[in-house]
Amino acid sequence: MRPVAEAPAVSTDLEALYDLHDVARTAEQRVPRPVWDFIEGGSGQEGSLRANRTVLDSVFLVPRVLQASAQPNTGTRLLGAPVALPLVVAPMAYQRLVHPGGEVAVGRAARAAGVPFVVPMLSSVPVERIAEGAGTLWLQLYWLRDRGLLTELVDRAKAAGCAALMVTVDVPRMGRRLRDVRNAFALPEDVGAVHLTDADMLAAQHQVPGRSAVASHTRQSFDPAFDWSCLEWLRSHTDLPIVVKGVLDPRDAVLAESLGAHAVVVSNHGGRQLDGAVPGFSVLPAVREAVSEACEVWVDGGFRSGVDVLKALASGATAALIGRPVLWGLALGGEDGVGKVLDLLRDELEDALALSGCADLKAAAGLGLMGELPRRLERHE
Question: Which residues are FMN-binding (predicted)?
Answer without folding.
Answer: 91-93, 140, 168, 245, 267, 300-304, 323-324
